[in-house]
Specification:
203 residues, Rossmann fold, 6-stranded parallel sheet, 9 helices, 39% helix, 16% strand
Length: 203
């Protein structure tokens, strides 16, 4: 999507990532966020290149965006390359610009527990907590690591109960909640491994 049109006071979840490739786990988190957080839309923000991931094996941005749209297949899940158009590289910078250009929208950052476990490696990661409320979705094998991680401990005082998730979008940051839902073990890494193995075997 080259342009995103919003109306004032919409509640929008942002799910950022490489989407290399997008899969049903992304879709399930998005559908859960729409329902549990009372969102109007979820934006899949496809990153041109995650600074923490190798360039080797990264599909072209246009291909990842096109594939993500096929997987999303929902009127309230919007796939965008807005990060490329903003010219930002780091999530904190992207979110800052989004908040500046869409002042009437209420954004919520969506991420899996795996990202909470390692977000302290991101550039200006504490700024993200102060920019937007955050919804963290449980993922297989990451629950305890995520909750014991630096970010969870540093912002423990700002954690909101899961039962209050419906108000997260209108809660001033820092504010975050950990959401337990049906866990999907699928990952983009495993999908790429299977595709590579299939290509080698000629299947």
């Amino acid at each position: 999507m080259s342009n995103i049109i919003t109306t004032p006071h919409r509640r929008i979840g942002i799910l950022g990532g490489s989407f290399n490739p997008a899969h049903q786990g992304h879709r399930e988190i998005s559908l859960a966020a729409l329902q549990l957080l009372g969102l109007d839309d979820v934006w899949w923000m496809v990153s041109p290149q995650n600074p923490l991931k190798p360039v080797d094996g990264m599909a072209p941005l246009a291909a990842r965006v096109a594939a993500a749209r096929k997987v999303a297949n929902h009127p309230k899940i919007r796939v965008t390359d807005i990060e490329a158009r903003l010219g930002t590289r780091y999530t904190a910078d992207t979110l800052r610009k989004l908040c500046e250009t869409h002042r009437d929208c209420r954004f919520v950052w969506l991420m899996g527990a795996d990202n909470l476990a390692q977000i302290a490696h991101w550039k200006d990661w504490t700024q993200i907590f102060h920019q937007l409320p955050i919804a963290v979705f449980d993922r297989p094998s990451y629950t305890y690591r995520a909750m014991a991680a630096q970010a969870a401990r540093r912002f423990q005082a700002f954690r909101r109960p899961e039962q209050a998730a419906g108000r997260l979008a209108i809660t001033p940051p820092p504010a975050w909640t950990f959401i337990h839902h049906r866990l999907n073990p699928i990952s983009a890494t495993e999908i790429r491994k299977k595709r590579k193995a299939a290509a080698k075997s000629g299947v």
